[in-house]
Amino acid sequence: MLDNMVIKIQKTIGIPRSLLYYKYFPLWKTFFEELDYEVVISDKSTNKIVEVGGKYAIDEICIPLKLYYGHLVNLLEKNVDFIFIPRYISTTFGTYMCPKFLGLPDLIRGTMENLPPIIEMDIDLRKKPKYTSMVHTGRQLKRSTAQIRKAYEKSVKIYHYFRNLMVQGLSFQQAMNIVNGGVENFQPKSSKHDGVKIGIIGHGYNVHDPFINMDLLKKLRKMNVQVVTLENLPLEIFKQRTIITNSLKNYWGNEEEILSAVNYLFEDKTLDGLIFICSFCCGPDSLIDELITRDAKKLDLPYISLVLDEHSGQTGVITRVEAFVDMIIRKKRTQNIKSTQKIPMKTVTGQLEVK
Amino acid sequence: MGNCWPCFKALVEGMGAESYLPDYNNLKQLDSGLKQSPEWVCFPFKTTIANFIAALDAGVKVIVMATDCGPCRFGFYYAVQERILKDMGYDFEMKYLPQGDLLTFEWVKLLKSMCEDKSLYSNYLVYRTARVFLMKCSLVQDIEAYEGSTRCYEVNPGETTQIVKKYVGLVDSAKRYHELRQLRSRIRRSFQEIPKRKHDGEALKVGLTGEIHVTLDPFTNHDIKRKLGELGCEVHMDLSLYDWIKHKFHVNFHRKYIEYLSKTHKKYGGIQMDIGGEAFWVVGEYINWAQNNFDGFVHIYPFTCMPEITAKSIISKMYTDRVFDLPPAFFSFDEHAGEAGFVTRLESYVELLKTKKEQKKKYGSRSK
Predict the structure, then answer these.
(1) Domain residues for A220?
(2) CA distances from A283 to A267, B40, B160, B164 (A)
(3) Separation of alpha carbons B202 and B295, rounded Å
(4) Contact at CB, B307 and A244, closer than 8 angstroms
């Protein structure tokens, strides 16, 4: 009964629209809403947000983290009562996240002033199950265990629903709209697509943030390219640990997903090209990129890695991607001609129209 | 890594294998590494792969590389390097030394695999080599500690450097445990016998710490230790190979203490757990030295090192908030570093420390 009386005044929890927002947001949102808190998200990333974030962050840090600072400042302007900063240590057994995630609450607490109370959530699947950590988070908000349990069960359900939507072929934004209650024109994944099929891999916060990648996904779709992101792949492939050499198993959480997705995509014969989006100064990606490049070379698969930061010019990146797509189209046509042998190659390549 | 080469050499040769020693890192050797490594990987990757290429060119068949299981990039080094070198067309075998936790004793297997003798005698060899290795590490640590504390007082410039060189050579040439034991007192005595200016308490006490490879390798850090000494600073460095190995055997109580310091300063952003690199201990060390009235703190790390950047932002915030009165200086290194710019920054930092010390005498400390 006492609990019910406290609940009457709804307090707000701010969640920055950066980093793991692009992966776990439905989970967090339902969890806090079930605990009777209002969830406030910061505005979409803009140039201004990066500039503000750049003042707090030091110069060598990667752009998603600079954005994170900017979003935090944006939340402060909205006068939230709490700020939620999770500490994801490991999400599957035997892996770590990037060091920046491990020290994220410490970093924010150490570098920013006038922050409202921070709510932490230490997810460490090497040591304790997710439920325990979420109970701990709920306790910080002074809620009963029964209520937390209920919230936990519902939030996990919603999260799986959200993931399944994406596996069926929806983009991040579409799936988000459906989970939030909006109606989306839902077209089931069509197996027939005459255009080019390109896999886009990278961290969720790089691939799905239209500011960082300059709305690349939309532009590719406009070029009549079928885009496959990491989340669209079947869930089973992420269950096995990837092995790099006989003695080394990969130990980075995010890279684990990328590598298993790449391994899956390499076996997909219908795939025409691969784009790797990574942010400048990203530690793990610098080595993963090297490995994927060498693998792709062996398979003769067109591969491009886009290294992005807040200074990268939009036109330069778009030109590179357009050239990449054109190259694939040309390669495809010559292959078709080679296989059918109807027309001599020289005349056709001269007449090729590139969209 | 700087003066640590005699230790690793003893480790290989003690087991009866032959070792190859590449030159000290230099620009010419580094060039081949730069061409092969990914563009924005951290700097130690580039130096180590350059060393491997030099070694393979000289006809080496087996390469041993240490690995870690931590969240930092270091654990991936050997796998990616093996891949790159094999693609270049070299034929060799890559062995790895798992040093995530030395108490698992997996290194014994590695040492035994180097030995041709497969009988029980190899167990004794492992014991003897490990003992000599640890002794050498500890002697090198001694030499480096004395070097830091004597250079700023020497009358004849360059004398300390010579003695360091001489004793690192002697540590290398001594093969038996008892020879090494006698060396310890000789090292202490000869550093004490260097003619010194009178100790007037004017020398600045500067703590030097950071990522282990950069801190110990004089090519990578532009010999920052010598330069600080010549500018009149007593350089204190707790970081060494011996310190690291002790930590990996879980008997390094100094590190345990600074971990505790970092954890108890949670309010100011003290790191709560090991996040790779040396970030955890750098923050703890900063607090430790601030409490012991040091004058300066220099933190060095490779460009884009993920954990050290976290530590850097926490430390600079601690100072600007006046939690501690210990001015920090940060230097990040990669192959594009310019020598002159670096020296200017270092000189101005030391000048600032000097004026600060005088002001402190007059007006007292500015910390809360």
Answers:
(1) 190-351
(2) 27, 8, 38, 36
(3) 11
(4) no
Cβ distance A147 to A161 under 8 Å? no
Per-residue pLDDT tens listing for chain B (368 residues)? 678 888 888 888 888 888 888 888 888 888 888 888 887 788 888 888 888 888 888 888 888 888 776 667 787 888 888 888 888 888 888 888 887 778 888 888 888 888 887 888 888 888 988 999 999 999 999 999 999 888 888 888 888 999 999 999 999 898 888 889 999 999 999 999 988 887 766 788 899 998 888 888 888 888 889 999 888 888 998 888 898 889 888 898 998 998 898 888 887 777 777 776 678 888 899 999 999 888 899 999 888 777 888 888 888 888 888 888 889 999 888 777 788 888 999 999 999 998 888 888 887 766 55
Closest CA to A16 of A91, A151, A108: A108
Residues in B closer than 8 angstroms to A290, CB to CB, are 38, 41, 80, 83-84
Q: Is the separation of the CB atoms in A226 and A195 below 8 Å?
A: yes
Domain-wise residue ranges, chain B: 18-114, 203-368
Q: Do A99 and B269 touch (CB under 8 A)?
A: no
Closest CA to A325 of A194, A196, A221: A196
Cβ contact, residue pair A110, B317, below 8 Å = yes
Identify whether A82 is part of a domain: yes
Q: Identify which of B40, B279, B307 has the shortest CB distance to residue A280.
A: B40
Contact flag A109-B279 (C-beta cutoff 8 Å): no
Our CA-based measurement puts residue A111 at a distance from the nearest CA of chain B, in whole angstroms, of: 6
Distance linking the first and last C-alpha atoms of chain B: 40
User: Could you give the ipTM of this predicted complex?
Assistant: 0.73
Read off the pTM: 0.80
Do A234 and A292 belong to one domain? yes
- Residues of chain A in contact with residue B87, where contact means CB-CB under 8 angstroms, are 294
At the second CATH level, the architecture of B203-368 is 3-Layer(aba) Sandwich (3.40)
